[in-house]
Structures are given as structure tokens and as C-alpha cells.
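Explain this one:

_____
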Amino acid sequence: MSLMPVPTYSLFQRTMPSPVGELTLVGGDAGLAAVLWEDDRPGRVVLGPVEQGGHPVLDAAAAQLEAYFQGRLQVFDLPLDFRGTDFQRGVWQTLLEIPFGETRSYGEIARSLGRPGASRAVGAANGRNPVSIIAPCHRVIGGSGGLTGFAGGLEAKAWLLRLEGHPLLL
């Protein structure tokens, strides 16, 4: 029996300015793999080798993020290259279902995944969300309604929620 080789493809990165700091976009032929923060914690998102350079998915992501920051876009339409465990990918997919301007608690997400006791695991997966803003982990709040950890910092999280018209932050 022979093993099939794991397909490999190049990942490219580019940076872009934003109202919440410089963002690094990473992606390739399979889609957008990461939106990284200026002061991102090393190892939060594991990607492998990344090259400097352009790619159409990075151009599309930058254009859509700019439109979002200008208040002209509420739903992103990009191919995503989620790299994580099945549970993490399930959490990240659930983030994509949180409507613009709304929030969910870690417990609500855990229950929606059929894992009502997994709030902490949801929090850990949320913290490793590779495509912040696109998969809107900023829309996840604590069970008491307060802002909780965010890779871009709580100030950026509050800014994003205000942009979306969240009533508690206007």
C-alpha cells in the first residue's frame, strides 16, 4: 500500500492598513487562510511557509475588508482555507452564521454545535480563529454580555461591534 502525497500549494501574504491596525492577509489557491493582527501572538495561527507576494484571493479580501470598514459591506464572500481540528472548523463555521450587528455567547455556540458543556473549548477555538473579522469572532461575548478576549485586543473588538451598530457599544 502506498500513501498518497499531501497536496501542497503556496501561501502568500500582504499587509493592509485598517482602522484597527495593520492586518496581514495570508492565502492561496485554496482561499484565505488568515487575517493576522499587528501584535498577533506567535503560534496563534499555524500556517507553514508563507511567501511575500500577491494573489487574487488576497486582493479580494483586502477590497472586501476596506468596504466593511467603510460601512459598505456586511457579509464577506471569500473562499476560506480553514486549517484546524474538526471541532475548531465547526466553531469557525458557526461564527460565519452570526449575523452582522448581532452577538452570541460561547455557551450559545457550544449548544448550537450539540456540545452544551463545551463553552471553554469554544472559547479556545474562537481564540485560534485564523480569519478574524471575516469569520466574526468579535461577535462572540461572555455569557454575562461583556466583552471577552480577542486576538486584536478589546479596543479593536469594541470598535468592530460599534461599526456594526451593536446597541451596547453605541
Q: What stands out?
A: The longest strand covers residues 31-37. Strands lie at 11-16, 23-28, 31-37, 51-52, 104-105, 140-141. The chain has two domains: 11-69, 86-169.
